[in-house]
Specification:
It is a single chain. About 15% of the residues lie in helices and about 35% in strands. It has about 120 residues and is an alpha+beta fold. β5 (about 65-70) and β6 form a beta hairpin.
Amino acid sequence: MRGTALVMDGSPRTARALGFADRFRYWRGASGRRYLFSAVTPDSLDDLVNVVVLTTVDGVDGDARVAWVGEIDEGGGRCGRSFADVAGRARVWVHFLAATGPERQAVLRDLTEAA
């Protein structure tokens, strides 16, 4: 069963004011809560642990579609759920603010329920 659409919800006002709007985005989960994500290169994922990851691809209409939501755990293992084919131009977004495993799982549950 699918929840409300998982949508990008703008950039922080400070990031926009400093010209970094393209590097930071809020994503809204099924609960209505917003989570701040930072844009990273796909290659940088090998250096990250204890983060939530969201991958998007540009749709035909120019809107970003969520392709994958998951986490990189403390050992560097990746697990998650695919939502779309990543044949297009992919962007990788990382949420650094969920420090513990239970916090990351709560964020993942909220995001995947919205997708």
